[in-house]
Design goal:
Elements lengths: L6 H10 L3 E7 L5 E6 L2 H4 L2 H16 L2 H5 L4 E6 L4 H11 L3 E5 L21 E9 L3 H12 L3 E10 L13 E6 L4 E2 L2 H7 L5 E2 L3
Parallel strand pairs: 1-9, 3-4, 3-5, 5-6, 6-7
Antiparallel strand pairs: 1-2, 2-8
Helix pairs in contact: 3-5
Length: 203
């Protein structure tokens, strides 16, 4: 496998580790889909985590402005799915440090822990395992900017957009593969498309 694997190689790695499955699945937000994607299942394996992290870091390095800022670049991710990716990218890039936004429950906004927040003027690369609805990353971007830091790019392992996924342009955006999944909100419609009983996924 090359230092930047092809999309087919990335997807095969995810299938081999059980991180990518096909069938009928229900996401926590109520969406029904023909694909289940859980990147942490691939990151359980050190060698796979290394391959994915290094590959994504090389895409980031391909941007001259980001490459020049690496020594002062901080990695910010949403907990918990983005944490393995963020630390893997930070190590591969030799970036400055890692922060993460978290919340106790879905009713409260993302926040940084006490004494654990971005600084005014800090350059931030937003990182996550998947860009799907984009809601969490958009909220994290707002949190970072509210702290006075500058978001300079966005990197994810997999881009799996829904019809309503926001566009983060003009930010530089990098992913190792794009998945076009089918999504349905109507359970009856989903049953017609996907055979078998649905499996509920948890965050």
């Amino acid at each position: 496998m090359q230092m930047i694997p092809s999309q087919d190689e990335v997807l095969q790695l995810l299938r081999d580790t059980g991180a990518l499955r096909t069938g009928h699945f229900v996401y926590p937000n109520g969406l029904h889909s023909d694909m289940a994607l859980q990147i942490p299942l691939a990151f359980r394996h050190y060698q796979h985590a290394k391959v994915l992290s290094v590959a994504l870091s090389r895409l980031v390095r391909s941007n001259p402005e980001l490459r020049a800022a690496i020594s002062e670049l901080s990695i910010v991710c949403p907990a918990t799915g983005g944490l393995p990716v963020a630390f893997g990218i930070c190590e591969a890039l030799r970036a400055k440090k890692v922060y993460w936004g978290e919340r106790e429950n879905e009713r409260e906004p993302l926040h940084f822990r006490q004494f654990h927040a971005v600084e005014p003027g800090e350059k931030v690369l937003l990182v996550d395992d998947i860009l799907r609805t984009g809601k969490k990353l958009m909220e994290l971007k707002s949190l970072v900017e509210a702290g006075g830091a500058n978001v300079v790019g966005l990197a994810v392992i997999i881009h799996q957009p829904t019809p309503d996924t926001p566009d983060f342009r003009p930010l530089p955006f990098y992913s190792l593969a794009k998945l076009d999944a089918m999504y349905f909100l109507d359970p009856e419609e989903a049953k017609c498309k996907f055979p078998g009983d649905p499996l509920k996924l948890f965050p």
